[in-house]
């Protein structure tokens, strides 16, 4: 059966009437709350972008020389950060001092820096923070056996390579020389980089070289197993740590390199600063936690000179530890990052800032919107009271003997007002206001007709 057109139109008119006389006027509600909603959206956007901006997706790390442990660890950081879609650009460098300078110049966001390279006051003043110490970097003094160096003072007159001045080794080793009462000019100090220096040592053009690096460095692994090359034993390591507090005493155990070949053939006592991951203080807080987490995966295992879980650590660094890093070491990763991927967790954590901003704005604004809404709805009714008052004033301004002739025009005005009022769309909750207006229109109509006075008293009774 085909639907009846007339019945369909009737249904539509009924639905339209229900919409017109609903409990809440959506149009009035939107107009009343529109400025508030716009203010809320603006504050939310500002809070999202300015108060707690999204972390950058690109970072730059200053590492170290070719074939150094810094370079190898930099690759591992890049691999881990790539899982969270963060591109880490590695910048090879000469070492700690050059890395510090790149941080200060804004050319790098994070860098490996050796302890003892700076002081805490200088680092804080320069706007640098530590994300934690990562591993010990023993001072490896490799010598040719033909140099016949047994005691440290035997180095006088020897050709010893300390590396370029941009590394941390020259400054560190000069402090060791001072502790032994040896002047730098009593040695023939070279400034070759690690790989050329190693070739020079093997070729016999120098007597020794100094590294300060983790044992994972390929050159150190090679030299520990090279015949004719021996490692200097710092038998007074404890005394060095008392004189130079940023140093620690570590032991290279016998056979750790190769148990089968018994390499090394004895325990070696070494002095060691620690490698620290240093960042600019404006590094995004979310990235601080992510970097500390990555450091735990890379450096948290047991090694030649460390126990399981000893590193990374907020200790062993003279640079102030970043507040977010200290919180991570104390409490672990943020709650949401334990169960979500980095970017999703970061999004929810940032939304808390937006929620706080919205709450601070919505609480006072929620007291403003309802009165505005009520005023808008009632103003549709109240404006017609002004028209009624004009009719009454016109009636009162007419002389009594002329009112009969003016009644027709006033009645026509009242009919127009009533017709307009009958087409007012108003929520049912305020229907009482509408019906009261209609009764007042009738009241004024009776006055115009002359059946009642301005007090509503019938004129016939007054005449009696």
Automatic annotation (TrEMBL):
Q: Which superkingdom, per the lineage? A: Bacteria
One Pfam family this chain carries?
A: NMT1_3
Q: State whether keyword Membrane applies.
A: yes
Residues passing through the membrane, by range: 29-51, 351-375
Task: Give the record's keywords alphabetically.
Answer: Membrane, Receptor, Transmembrane, Transmembrane helix
> Which PANTHER family does this entry report, sorted A to Z?
SLL1037 PROTEIN (PTHR42941)
State what protein this is by name: TRAP transporter solute receptor, TAXI family
Species the sequence originates in:
Massilia yuzhufengensis
């Amino acid at each position: 059966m085909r639907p009846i057109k007339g019945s369909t139109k009737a249904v539509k008119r009924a639905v339209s009437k229900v919409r017109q006389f609903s409990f809440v006027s959506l149009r009035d509600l939107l107009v009343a709350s529109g400025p508030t909603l716009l203010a809320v959206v603006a504050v939310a956007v500002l809070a999202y972008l300015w108060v707690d901006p999204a972390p950058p997706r690109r970072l730059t790390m200053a590492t170290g020389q070719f074939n150094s442990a810094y370079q190898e660890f930099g690759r591992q950081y890049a691999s881990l950060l790539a899982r969270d879609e963060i591109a880490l650009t590695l910048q090879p460098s000469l070492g700690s001092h050059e890395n510090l300078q790149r941080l200060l110049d804004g050319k790098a966001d994070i860098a490996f820096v050796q302890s003892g390279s700076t002081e805490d006051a200088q680092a804080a003043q320069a706007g640098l923070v530590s994300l934690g110490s990562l591993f010990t970097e023993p001072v490896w003094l490799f010598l040719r056996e033909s140099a016949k160096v047994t005691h440290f003072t035997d180095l006088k007159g020897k050709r010893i390579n300390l590396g370029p001045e941009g590394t941390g080794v020259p400054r560190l080793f000069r402090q060791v020389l001072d502790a032994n009462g040896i002047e730098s000019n009593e040695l023939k100090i070279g400034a070759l980089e690690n790989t050329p220096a190693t070739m020079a040592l093997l070729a016999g053009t120098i007597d020794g070289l100094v590294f300060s690096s983790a044992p994972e460095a390929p050159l150190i692994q090679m030299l520990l197993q090279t015949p004719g090359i021996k490692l200097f034993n710092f038998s007074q390591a404890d005394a060095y740590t008392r004189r130079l507090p940023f140093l620690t005493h570590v032991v290279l155990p016998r056979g750790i390199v190769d148990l089968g070949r018994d390499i090394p053939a004895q325990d070696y006592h070494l002095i060691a600063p620690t490698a620290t991951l240093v960042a600019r203080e404006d590094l995004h807080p979310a990235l601080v936690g992510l970097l500390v987490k990555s450091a735990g995966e890379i450096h948290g295992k047991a090694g030649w000179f460390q126990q399981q879980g000893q590193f990374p650590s907020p200790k062993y660094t003279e640079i102030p530890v970043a507040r977010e890093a200290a919180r991570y070491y104390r409490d672990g990763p943020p709650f949401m990052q334990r169960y979500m991927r980095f970017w999703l967790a970061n999004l929810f954590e940032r939304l808390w800032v937006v929620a706080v901003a919205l709450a601070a704005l919505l609480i006072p604004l929620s007291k403003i919107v309802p009165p505005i809404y009520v005023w808008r709805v009632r103003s549709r009714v109240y404006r017609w009271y002004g028209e009624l008052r004009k009719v009454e004033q016109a009636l009162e301004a007419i002389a009594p003997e002329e009112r009969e002739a003016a009644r027709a025009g006033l009645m026509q005005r009242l009919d127009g007002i009533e017709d307009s009022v009958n087409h007012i769309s108003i929520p049912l909750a305020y229907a009482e206001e509408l019906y009261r207006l209609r009764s007042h229109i009738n009241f004024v109509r009776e006055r115009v007709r002359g059946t009642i006075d301005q007090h509503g008293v019938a004129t016939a009774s007054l005449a009696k």
